[in-house]
Design brief:
The complex is a heterodimer of chains A (208) and B (256).
Chain A (H helix, E strand, L loop, with lengths): L1 H42 L13 H133 L5 H13 L1
Helix pairs in contact in A: 2-3
Chain B lengths: L1 H11 L30 H19 L10 H21 L7 H17 L12 H23 L17 H40 L6 H38 L4
Classes of the chains: A mainly alpha (208), B mainly alpha (256).
């Protein structure tokens, strides 16, 4: 009796197992099929976006963080100090160069001013020398002119004296000639020449 | 059943028109074929590592000469440095400059990831919302903490428009608070969305190139889209960085 019962129980259990197995298999098959379909769909360009697949999130986030940390350390430890030092050095050099250029420019302006001053000095000096030379020449000239004037004046005086002498001689000659002529005329007319009267008459004529 | 049919149909066309525009975003292990654990070396790891190598190449090898008159590679490093440094200084003011290395790190990662992603067969880490959300929410939390540490309760003045009419201030404050909390979402989705859309678009055009009749047009379209993507790669790195600077400025100087 007990045996039969046990056997029956066994059979029942077996049956149940089989059912369960079948169900399990079926479920597995369905799940598999669904997965296949999903994979298929994705492969065919279906709705499944790889971006929305959460199974890859942790991987991407982990490697992203690693990447960012590596980039950050490469930059902050090596690259950025180096580049900022180079840039600072460059701007320092440039501002130094600009300052030097400014200084040179100032010096050039100074040199130009000195040159201009020297030129102006030379010009005034030249003008002064010219003026001096002119004055000296003028003085010489004046002296020579004065000398010449004096010589001319002396010559003129001498000439005038000679002319006056000649004139005086001429006058005397004229008077004598007049007297002689008058006496001769009187004689020719048959008169007797009174020397005194002739002299008086000639003198009177000569005055007039 | 229906789904399987659609899938088979899509597959059936594989001799002609095939679109796998999203395959390029798959994260797969580089070695072996197991599940993707957090430490698994995947294609994402590879391309992030290449970005790191690029940073090292430009900023460590490039600036190696420390030349007063820079070489070409040193000029590139200095150009990046000057560009971001000036941006940080202009936007956040002088007290924001000490955060420059962190901002520069984010910029360089995004910049190099974006541009390396434009290489054929490459993987673009910044096309994944998981990556950009870490960056966006990272900026959000750090900036918020800086705001409270630097200004204490006055940081809440950011939400209280003292020059608005008194009656409107609570309403504006609610809007400001909402917009403040939307910031990290838009900050991260903007980047991932732009990069994903561009790459998917190029892939779709590439799919059309398999048909001889439209292939020339597809090639022209790919070229045009690629040029646009080059622009987007730079602009998105720039936008992410300048928004970070603006958020940092809000945290340092919350008063309106």
């Amino acid at each position: 009796m007990t045996d039969t019962t046990t056997e029956a129980a066994h059979t029942a259990a077996d049956a149940a197992n089989t059912v369960a197995d079948t169900a399990h298999d079926a479920a597995a098959a369905v799940a598999h099929g669904a997965a296949d379909v999903a994979a298929h769909g994705a492969e065919a360009g279906g709705a499944a976006m790889p971006q929305l697949d959460p199974s890859t999130f942790s991987n991407q986030i982990f490697w992203l963080l690693v990447t960012l940390v590596v980039i950050y350390f490469v930059l902050s430890r090596i690259a950025l100090p180096r580049i900022s030092a180079v840039l600072a050095e460059r701007s320092g050099t440039i501002s130094n160069d600009i300052a030097a250029a400014e200084e040179l420019k100032v010096r050039a302006v100074e040199a130009e001013a000195a040159y201009d001053k020297a030129l102006a000095d030379a010009r005034t000096e030249a003008a002064r020398i010219v003026a001096e030379a002119k004055a000296a020449i003028q003085a010489d000239l004046d002296a020579e002119i004065a000398k010449a004037d004096a010589a001319i004046a002396a010559k003129t005086a001498e000439s005038e004296k000679a002319i006056a002498e000649i004139r005086a001689n001429a006058l005397t000659s004229v008077t004598e000639v007049a007297k002689d002529t008058a006496a001769a005329v009187i004689e020719a007319l048959g008169g007797a020449a009174d020397a005194a009267a002739v002299d008086a008459a000639v003198a009177a004529q000569m005055k007039g | 059943m229906g789904k399987t049919d659609v899938a088979t149909e899509a597959h059936g066309e594989s001799t002609g028109l095939v679109f796998h525009p999203l395959d390029q975003f798959k994260v797969t292990p580089l070695f072996g074929d197991g599940p993707v654990a957090f430490y698994t070396i995947t294609n994402a790891t590879l391309w992030m590592a290449i970005a790191v190598l690029c940073v090292i190449a430009v900023f460590v090898l490039g600036s190696r000469g420390r030349a007063l008159v820079p070489s070409r590679s040193q000029s590139i490093a200095e150009l990046f440095y000057g560009f971001i440094y000036k941006m940080v200084e202009d936007v956040t003011g002088h007290d924001g400059v000490k955060y420059f290395p962190y901002i520069f790190t984010a910029f360089l990662f995004i910049f190099f990831a974006n541009f390396l992603g434009l290489l054929p067969l490459s993987f673009t880490p910044t096309s994944h919302i998981a990556v950009t959300a870490v960056l966006g929410f990272g900026v959000f939390f750090i900036v918020t903490i800086i705001g409270f540490v630097k200004n204490g309760v006055h940081f809440l003045g950011l939400f209280w428009m003292s020059d608005a009419p008194l009656a409107l201030r609570p309403i504006i404050a609610v809007i400001e608070v909402i917009s403040y909390f939307v910031r990290p979402v838009s900050h991260s989705i903007r980047l991932a969305g732009n990069i994903t859309a561009g790459h998917a678009m190029i892939k779709v055009f590439a799919g059309f190139a398999a048909i001889a009749a439209v292939a020339p047009a597809a090639v022209v379209a790919i070229s045009a889209a690629y040029a646009l993507e080059v622009l987007v790669a730079g602009i998105q790195a720039y936008v992410f960085t300048i928004l970070t600077c603006i958020y940092l400025k809000d945290a340092l100087h919350p008063a309106h």
